[in-house]
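Why should sequence recovery work at all? Because a backbone constrains its sequence more than one might expect. Tight turns favour small or flexible residues, buried strands favour hydrophobic ones, and helices have their own preferences. The token representation captures these environments compactly. In the example below, the structure is given first.
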């Protein structure tokens, strides 16, 4: 698989929807993750990321304009011990509770399917970073309808042991804009990862479509110590 430029992947796609990037920094010191949301409707665009504990929560920027909160208000990031969970929906809580009960990442997600937002049937994408004792591995998952048919759920989990410095994987909900929106296809994309959190954050944010981007979360976790740095960028209020 050829390594792609994350910036080119983002700038060349007006509407990838929501996306997760996980990998290792170029200097090999940090576990890296990014999560972004985009929106076409006023309801989807009326959001910001806010810190909640060690994770984040989506929140209505203008509560008076909030229409349907069911699929847009959730905790995209939660931390449980050495695990950082990143998802595009309330399955963050499903994974958190599953891990807490001793289930694996994949087992936890067996309880969920794609989002009930026909005709799009938006895929649920999820990621898990495990940093412990100077070691690091990560997984990505996508739960999607069968070529747009909600009668079947297709489940794919990708696990990356001993990730290489400067490499990451990128998965997003939609292939591109459309009606209905076409679900992501294929393996997570192999992309390059830098070693500076601010440079990385700025590059991702600037590459997202100006009209559709809403919020971005980036975290660099020191693999040796478990300490982390976080950046949050919101279009609303910026």
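From this structural description, the recovered sequence reads:
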């Amino acid at each position: 698989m050829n390594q792609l430029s994350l910036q080119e992947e983002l700038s060349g796609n007006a509407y990838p929807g929501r996306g997760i990037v996980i990998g290792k920094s170029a200097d090999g010191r940090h576990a890296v993750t990014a999560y972004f949301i985009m929106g076409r409707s006023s309801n989807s665009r009326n959001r910001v990321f806010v810190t909640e504990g060690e994770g984040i929560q989506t929140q209505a920027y203008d509560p008076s304009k909030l229409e349907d909160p069911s699929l847009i208000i959730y905790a995209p990031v939660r931390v449980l011990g050495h695990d950082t969970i990143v998802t595009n929906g309330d399955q963050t809580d499903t994974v958190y509770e599953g891990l807490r009960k001793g289930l694996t990442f994949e087992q936890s997600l067996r309880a969920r399917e794609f989002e009930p937002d026909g005709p799009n049937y938006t895929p649920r994408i999820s990621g898990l970073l495990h940093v412990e004792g100077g070691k690091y591995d990560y997984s990505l998952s996508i739960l999607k309808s069968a070529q747009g048919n909600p009668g079947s759920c297709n489940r794919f989990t990708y696990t990356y042991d001993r990730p290489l410095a400067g490499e990451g994987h990128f998965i997003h909900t939609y292939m591109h804009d459309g009606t209905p929106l076409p679900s992501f296809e294929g393996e997570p994309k192999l992309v390059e990862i830098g070693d500076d959190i601010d440079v990385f954050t700025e590059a991702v944010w600037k590459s997202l479509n100006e009209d559709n981007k809403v919020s971005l979360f980036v975290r660099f976790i020191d693999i040796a110590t478990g300490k982390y740095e976080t950046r949050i960028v919101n279009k609303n209020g910026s």
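A few observations help interpret the result. Residues 62 and 196 are 33 Å apart (CA to CA).
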